[in-house]
Write a structure and sequence with these properties.
By secondary structure, this protein is mainly β. Helices cover 10% and strands 40% of the residues. It is globular.
């Protein structure tokens, strides 16, 4: 017996149960949040220079899309006040955070005008990167797709860098965790 429980809108917990009828209600937002909390994601910061100031925000919706051409994606809430500012920048930096960035993540969650206060960052081609990020990508917007209460943004990858030192910072079960890299 496993502790895994499949939940559908008909109330069935049987893994072999048929799919819910097409006219059944979709999952509520709180149910989706609970389910997605069971999917570990990396933590990134997307940032650029806008009007000479670093502008950006944490994001855990970063995803690999294509190797040829090199594409990734981020999803932005339509209610975000940072997203419209970032759209003005031709290139953005995506910084994949490491365990050592936990304090930076707390700072980057403050109001937009204070986010980068006390955070070490560098800029290249207008893209902003956190210092000592595990991986960085310099990207530009390739396309935007309407995705309900979000905008799915396809990003063309222009440059990247990866460090193998230390482990990443991940978000799982609504909490931050470190992930120790395997020893070679």
């Amino acid at each position: 017996m496993t502790d895994f429980e499949a939940i559908d809108m008909t109330g069935s917990t049987d893994l072999s149960a048929s799919a819910p009828a097409a006219d059944s209600a979709p999952p509520a937002a709180r149910e989706l949040r609970h389910a997605f909390a069971g999917f570990a994601t990396g933590i990134t910061v997307v940032a650029a220079l806008v009007d000479g100031r670093p502008t950006g925000m944490p994001a855990n919706s970063f995803s690999s899309i294509s190797l040829d051409p090199p594409l990734a994606a981020l999803s932005f809430a339509r209610t975000s006040t940072t997203w419209p500012l970032l759209r003005r920048a031709p290139q953005w930096g995506i910084s994949v955070l490491g365990e050592h960035h936990k304090a930076d993540l707390a700072r980057l969650s403050r109001p937009a005008a204070e986010r980068f206060d006390g955070v070490s960052w560098v800029s290249s081609h207008g893209a902003v990167f956190l210092e000592h990020a595990r991986t960085t990508f310099r990207v530009g917007v390739a396309a935007e797709v309407d995705a309900g209460d979000h905008v799915l943004t396809l990003l063309r990858i222009h440059a990247l860098r990866r460090s193998t030192d230390g482990g990443p910072l991940i978000f799982y079960n609504n909490r931050l965790h470190g992930l120790k890299p395997e020893q070679s």
